[in-house]
Amino acid sequence: MSVPDTAAARHPDPHRVERSSPRVRWRLLPWWGRVMLVYAASRVVTTAIVLVMARQQPASAWTDASPGYFAFANLWDARWYAYIAAAGYPTELPLDDAGHVAENAWAFLPVYPGIVRLFTTVGVPWEVASVLISLAAGLGAALVFHRLMSRVLEPDQAMFAVVLFCVAPVSPILQFGYAEALAFLWLALALLLLVDRRYGWLVPVIAIWAFTRPGALAFALTLGLHWIVRWVTRRTDPFPVRDQLVVASVAVFAGVAGLAWPVIAWAATGVPTAYTDTELAWRAPYIGYVELVPLTPWFQSGQWWLGQPMGTIAPVVLVLGFAALLLSPWVRRLGVDLRLWLASYALYLFAVFFPQSSTFRLLAPLFPLAGALAVPRSRWWRGGLVLVSLALQVGWLLIAWRIDGLDWTPP
Questions:
Q1: In 3-state terms, what secondary structure has residue 353?
Q2: pLDDT averaged per 10 residues, the chain (length 411)
């Protein structure tokens, strides 16, 4: 049977053809639909990478050889969260043979294992529930991050910033049994509320974030600097007394929240330094048991990794380089408040963190820098960044996640 030679067949509606193209369909989607598609696609790619790596994983203390996805996604610190959900926190600190505080559960905060445990009580296996919670929190973080970037960037730049967030080198953590994805959600919410100057809503967000992952102290510094900037610029940007009091109060609250967990560890164990001693146990294999002296860990790490004089020179160069980065045109596009967070969190890490294989994961809260990388619109630049990020995902998983014998490179 021949097809009728109709006018509609000979001359299709150009608007209908145009609307059927993938590019137009993409543009017709609401912003949240595009973010969800980006997040889903990125997780499919990362899952494929993780499955290939899991298949090559030899037997370890945690799993048999070639474990399934959910077992492979619950290595390393994920086991500490599972332990906390099952047994809570010790009231007596464990000691090694030399009498030093050993690694223990006080290094990990309770919100994430508490949420996962709610799902296990209704029959969802821990390994599955931990991944699902991280996936959901990661999606929430991506959605809020888009709203945050839309405050400082053009629509296409904001969306590409989300792409970079979703394919970042450590983004597999968004689908592992770690608290990072949940912490990214609270951080993105806190930054959005700060940029929008909805200060009162910061209180519940900070309260939950402070018991999910460390970072509230850095945010307290951000709020303090925000108060100073608004005070200095009050002639061009009015800073009412009410706002002055609210910002100052929330900054103090953030500081108190950031110190609450060490105080709780002290109260539960009777040891004033229970939390810091626990954290120091993780760096003891590198430099032995030493006191925590702020602003020295990066130099201690430099000495261990590089010796002298590079062990001193390298941290100084990194500090100067990061300061120059904050003053660069692309980063300046992010606005004052986000740069204050970047500076505050970097200072927090420099003050207390000992750089080793976990450094890449600990740098992840600097994710607003993805907005700076999203400023150029070149297809080569953007495509290249995605490919490099995916390659670095593989590198991070090989270095920090995959277990090879007596592995000393935790993520």
A1: coil
A2: 50 55 83 97 98 94 93 96 96 93 97 97 96 98 98 97 98 98 98 98 98 98 98 96 98 98 98 96 91 94 95 97 97 98 98 94 98 97 98 96 85 92
Residue 138 CA to residue 120 CA, distance in Å, equals 20
Sign of the torsion angle spanned by Cα atoms 258, 259, 265, 271: positive
pTM over 0.90? The answer is yes
Please report, for residues 121, 255, 290, 302, the alpha-carbon distance to residue 261 in angstroms, rounded to integers and kept in the order given. Answer: 26, 11, 21, 29
CA atoms within 13 A on the CB side of 245: 3
Specify whether the backbone of 405 is left (phi greater than 0), alpha (psi in -120 to 50) or beta: left
Which residues neighbour 341 within 8 Å (Cβ) at sequence distance 6 or greater? 191, 194, 218, 219, 222, 368
d(CA 319, CA 298): 10
* Distance (Å, whole) CA 43 – CA 136: 12
Among the listed residues 184, 320, 344, the one whose alpha carbon sits nearest the alpha carbon of residue 251:
344
Residues with Cβ within 8 Å of 109's Cβ and at least 6 positions away in sequence, in order, are 179, 210, 211, 212, 213, 214, 261
Cβ–Cβ under 8 Å, residues 335 and 326: no
For residues 290 and 300, the answer to whether their CB atoms sit within 8 Å is yes
Dist. CA 398–CA 402, nearest whole Å? 5
For 245-262, the DSSP string reads HHHHHHHHHHHHHHHHHH
Distance CA 326, CA 372 (A): 10
Closest to 159 measured CA to CA, from 325, 33, 23: 33
Identify the residue whose tokens are 């020179």. Answer: 313
pLDDT at 22: 78
